[in-house]
Amino acid sequence: MSDSKQSVGFPYNQGQTNDGWSNEDEATATCACGKVQMVIPLKAPGLQGTFVCHCTDCRKVSASMFATNFTSLDSHTRFVRGEDNLTVFSQSSTTTTGETMANSFCKTCGTLMFRAGTIAPGTRFMRGGIIDDHSLHDTMLKPKVEIFSEHRAAWVSPVEGAEQGKGMGPFVKDKKGDEKKEEGQGKL
Ligand SMILES: [Zn+2]
Ligand SMILES: [Zn+2]
């Protein structure tokens, strides 16, 4: 990993903090108030994949019509500050698999930093919108997969070139013989 922190001070408003950075290996992810900051990997194996999710849970927890996400290995993800400033909401009643999904929010500003599930121990489903270097959304972090695409709002277009998954799409392959329950109700 490189220690160099390039691009400190991006040419736009970073919110309440101005210490986001990126280099070719890693980038910062910061909540709206700046109290929680993480460093996430930009390359495999630390970066496992990028996806958009249109499920109901993602709409609710993101307070938006879909969520932009990427999967990172915990072993390659670290906190700069604020891990103790997270509050966690966990539930399993609406997940397709019945597995628990835990949502970690900044206690101060409410930003959802990541979700983590018993479905995938050792990984986090990070929220893309908290990455400080916006250019990464068009490069390394551009979504390659969409899941629960059957729930996509009619005015949202598919991401060009992204695999269109129904229900959990390619994620279901990672499950050991776990059958999808009612697709229409599915959530990740
Ligand atoms: Zn915050
Ligand atoms: Zn989802």
From TrEMBL:
Alphabetic keyword roster: Lyase, Metal-binding, Zinc
Pfam families listed in its UniProt record: GFA (PF04828)
Biased composition (Basic and acidic residues): 172-188
Domain of life: Eukaryota
Domain CENP-V/GFA residues, every copy: 27-145
Family: Belongs to the Gfa family.
Lineage: Eukaryota, Fungi, Dikarya, Basidiomycota, Agaricomycotina
PANTHER family per record: CENP-V_GFA DOMAIN-CONTAINING PROTEIN, GFA DOMAIN-CONTAINING PROTEIN
Keyword Cell membrane assigned: no
Name of the molecule in the record: Mss4-like protein
Gene3D superfamilies in UniProt: glutathione-dependent formaldehyde- activating enzyme (gfa) (3.90.1590.10)
InterPro entries: CENP-V/GFA, Mss4-like_sf
Ranges for region Disordered: 1-21, 159-188
Recorded GO MF terms: carbon-sulfur lyase activity; metal ion binding
